[in-house]
Amino acid sequence: MTTVSSSERLLKTICGSCLILAPAVLLVGGALHPEETTDAARQYEIIADNLGRWELAHWLISASMLLMLGAVVGLAHLLHEHRPAEGIVGGAATMCGVMALFAVAGAEAAIVPQMGRSGDAQLFERIVTSGGWWVLLGAVLLLPLGLIIMSYGMYRSRVTQTWVAGTIALGSVAFAVSLPTGSPVAFIIGLVLMLVGLARVGWSMLTASDDQWRHPPQVGDQLAAKPPLA
Description:
By secondary structure, the protein is mainly α. Helix content is 79%, strand content 0%. It has helices at 6-32, 40-49, 51-79, 84-110, 112-118, 121-128, 131-139, 142-157, 162-181, 184-206, 210-214. The protein is elongated and about 60 Å long. The two termini are 20 Å apart.
């Protein structure tokens, strides 16, 4: 029997909670988000007409990315014994995507609404059409890419049930498709699937024993006589 320290139990609680809360808060922020379009002039009008909603949606998205940091640590821990490569590579990619989306959402929450209030449409158009802005938006794709890699690791390692890994992967694909296309349907579907899969892992992590947290068991491991984490 493995005994973990109080700090490790705290880490388990934080990671499990973040796995549930991060996609839930992101889903709420995404549902509140006003229409998006590639037409900069039209987008400026939408922002100016929905300033409060625009700000709230992006503050929620920013908060979800802070929570996602703990979620990624939890997923990486889940893979650390059986598929460390996917845990490290997928975790690093996801972290980069998380930081990129946090930067984008933070800017759109704190700076863009001020442009809407000032009536400076030209400055807004220059920013959103600049090369640097599009590079930052492209980096956000690392978030779903990293989750797909980690989902593959969970599937191969059998530390989660197949449907859990598949749900996270499918949700990440739909989320990735929604980013360049601006499809609200793909965005919501992707986030709902990610919420179902990640929350399942998070709940299992919260209710796991000390030994299960230290050494994540595999699905169907009858010899160990321990249920899987998810």
